[in-house]
Amino acid sequence: MAFKITILGSSGAVPAYGRMPSAQFIEVENNYFLIDCAEGAQLQLMKFDLHMHRIDHIFISHLHGDHYLGLMGLLFTLHLNKRKNDLHIYSHKGLDEIITLQLKYSKSALNYKIIFHQLTPGKKEVIFENKFVMVETIPLLHKLDCSGFLIREKQKPRRIDKEMLPQNLSILQLNKLKAGEDLLDEVGNVLYRNDKLTLPPRKSRSYAYCSDTQYFEDIIEQIRDIDVLYHEATFMEEDADKALETRHSTVKQAATIAMKAQPTRLLIGHFSARYKDLLPVIDEAKRVFQNTYLALEGETFTIED
Amino acid sequence: MAFKITILGSSGAVPAYGRMPSAQFIEVENNYFLIDCAEGAQLQLMKFDLHMHRIDHIFISHLHGDHYLGLMGLLFTLHLNKRKNDLHIYSHKGLDEIITLQLKYSKSALNYKIIFHQLTPGKKEVIFENKFVMVETIPLLHKLDCSGFLIREKQKPRRIDKEMLPQNLSILQLNKLKAGEDLLDEVGNVLYRNDKLTLPPRKSRSYAYCSDTQYFEDIIEQIRDIDVLYHEATFMEEDADKALETRHSTVKQAATIAMKAQPTRLLIGHFSARYKDLLPVIDEAKRVFQNTYLALEGETFTIED
Fold it and tell me: For B17-42, what is each residue's pLDDT tens digit?
């Protein structure tokens, strides 16, 4: 099953040089999530041929305009495209009021239902969970209440070892094996030990989106050893004072968080418009954490099974 | 002096095929106006190298999302670009509340002042006027309170006829001639008759923006004989029932308004996403009003002096 992160925007507060503000489209185990939804997000979804109508959950990290101002346009487009399914929106306090007010003045009733989920500032909490995937918030440190999102696959079933498998097992028995159980005979004696017929489960993949935040080591424990970490990197180290003033991170700080949390890959984004050329940016990151990538528009990062 | 209309968006409610929703940038006599400001308007201003910081007046026709959802992002970008000048925003009731609420939740105080001007539904009124230009509303007929905008140069000064001009006239005397006055001697006798030394003023140019509206002949009197008329043309005549249902115009209806009002040129836009190919659209218009143009992204229409 796929686990893919597609970047819709890599820019900080102001769009620049074709770079758009924050939004990411995530596909994981047939779930489709949007994380942040800046102005132009719907245009990017169209441009990169992503299926906006499949999105059932939208996670907004905080209420700075460059993280949510594309939401209202997307909601109207989904309406005009005759969406019927419920849409879940997760955000800190205020977004429901903003959406409701704009619907009121446009005299529009959407032909689908929006279900708002209000995030708790400063608190790690599970906000979405189904059989395969869970999403929890990552409390960040910014000028506004701001949460990152950690998307994790749940523990997977053990894999049947086809070479060792006796013939004529029932589906019920196969499911028991996948769930880690031994197979018993009618009176309760072990027919087959589970570890003889199965292999360990595939690993559960994980992605963390950390936007916007000043350097904040509290997040490290929660994101340790994940597969892919996105961390904002608005400024270069030479502008560290500007980063602190605006409660953002430098590239070096983002890479330092990665160095300490040890994801397989680090993605950086939310670049200030002062940097036209991003080569020095990626260089600054790689000096601290080698396996870093620029999270640029249209790039898809796949986490292999 | 320039009178130029640059199209930022030609699409109806949903962006499609690279067509963006409504926004236009107008330069007239060193005044810079934005009319409507859909999602992506700031991107288009950047793309076409237009000077967003020069815009002091933004006119929003109505509060459907495809006509104003780019405003908040533009306001933040102007703020981050350190705008200081007052910004005037003209809209029907609600937009001030929408902006104020979003500023509240972003905990942002803009470093310039916004001055709201609330339009009166159904009433023609002058909303902006300076020495050279005036803007008045055009009441339209749509699902929401909706106004078009008529931009007119004021009566211009008479032109000095250099071939007939005596030497050694003072600046004061030249200004009197431009204002249409005769030149008198000290006791009040006519020294020079105005019509001997001046030529008629250059004509006052005019542009009308009519969006969104069903076919509405009431507007014709107000826009008669203007230079350029923009009229929405959301649907083709074959979808006239859809046009009526959604309170929009067909291409043929837009052209019929032009035929009756006799502007020099007609621009049409706000095209439904159902029409990928716009050749049949322009054909339908030209059958009724020959001098019609598609108002496409990046096109600039200049009204010559």
Answer: 999 999 999 999 899 999 999 999 99
CB-CB under 8 Å, A64 with B106: yes
How far does B62 lie from chain A, in Å, by closest CA? 8
Whether residues A125 and A237 share a domain: the answer is yes
CB contact set of B300 (below 8 Å; sequence gap of 6+): B4, B5, B6, B7
CATH of the domain at B283: 3.60.15.10
Q: List pLDDT tens digits, range A170-189.
A: 999 999 999 999 999 889 99
Sign of dihedral through CA atoms B282, B285, B289, B292?
A: negative
What is the count of structural domains for chain A? 2
Q: What range defines the domain where residue B185 resides?
A: 159-199
ipTM of this complex > 0.90? yes
A220 close contact with B: CB closer than 8 A: no
Judged by average pLDDT, the poorest of A84-93, A118-127, A183-192, A250-259 is: A183-192
Is B162's pLDDT higher than 90?
Answer: no
Same domain, A104 and A148: yes
